[in-house]
Amino acid sequence: MQQTLQVISLLIAMILLPALGIGLIVSMFQAATSINEQTLTFIPKLFITILVLIFAGPWMLSMLLSFTQRLFEDIPFLIG
């Protein structure tokens, strides 16, 4: 159970933290320039999320696959 939360938290953080950082930077830019366009933050967040998935996607997939394989191997020990 603890390993599951660690793996999922790491995989989610890899995607959300860069999007959060870009959103914060764009919001600070909007506040400094008094631009009140709601869609201005969407495109950079989408772009950085796609970049993260392209570059970190293979690592994320291998981590998830190895965790799933380990989980299936440990099922007999978990049952009893």
The number of strands is 0
Order of helices and strands: HH
Task: Please count the helical segments.
Answer: 2
- Secondary-structure-based class equals mainly alpha
Give the helix level as a range of percent. over 70%
Brief descriptors of the model:
2 helices; 80 residues; mainly alpha
Structure description:
The protein has 80 residues and is mainly alpha-helical. It has one domain. Helix content is 88%, strand content 0%. It contains two helices and no strands. The protein has helices spanning 2-33, 42-79. Helix 1 runs antiparallel to helix 2 (42-79). The longest helix is centred in the last third of the chain and has 38 residues, at 42-79. The protein is elongated, with a radius of gyration of 18 Å. The model has no long low-confidence stretch (mean pLDDT 93).
Structure at a glance:
The protein is mainly α and 80 residues long.
Secondary-structure blueprint:
Blueprint: H1 2-33, H2 42-79
